[in-house]
What does this fold into?
Amino acid sequence: MNKLVFIEGNIGSGKSTLAKALGPRLGLPVLDEPVDTELLEAFYKDRVVWAFPFQMAMLHKRWRLQMNAASREPGAIVDRSIWGDMVFARDQARAGNINKLEWKIYCEAVRNMCLVLFPPTLLIFLATSPHTCLERIRKRGRPGEEAINIPYLQRIHDGYQEMLSEAETGFYPWSHAVKPLVITADVTTVDDAHMDRVADTVNGALRGRSLPDYISGSSSPWAACNDRPDHANDRDQRREPPR
It folds into this structure.
């Protein structure tokens, strides 16, 4: 049966590098993370104005990517899923750049998408320090990422730790069947031998696994997207745009 491998991690954690290396080793096509440079630049210039439209646009792009992946034979590797997208959206909601009404709209979209999405066969998380991520971001020089700094990367890092903790407690619709595989990615040398070892580890985790079904009962495919992402209070907490 089809195998869906989701790779999650911070910006600059090495997701794309790992995905491209695993593809031929696992015999699976790689579906790259969608990048909209124009929208990305607008978001980093003014997150108050662009956080919600940016997150909604990326959510829909990732949904289409996952739908595409599920239709592939014998499966696919996906560079960030909608579950990783929620880490970023939740961060913007907590920062006050997405207000309560916008968060409800985002969550409703996630709920609807979950009705037709397959869960992952395996979810890989790349554990990379924010400082290492920033070094890689600066080195690749992607347009629109100049404003990324350590505090932002630290928040995303913490958000992913929260996501992994939630997965351990069965918070997500796939948590009953999928245990995230955490791979340390703070390495200075990434050669073929290193990638061969990582691929062996991933193959071991995949062996005998196929697409799990959603569990019936009280577990809900959208329980992970609640309508209160810890906003400071009930008022619109948007930050003032930079002058």
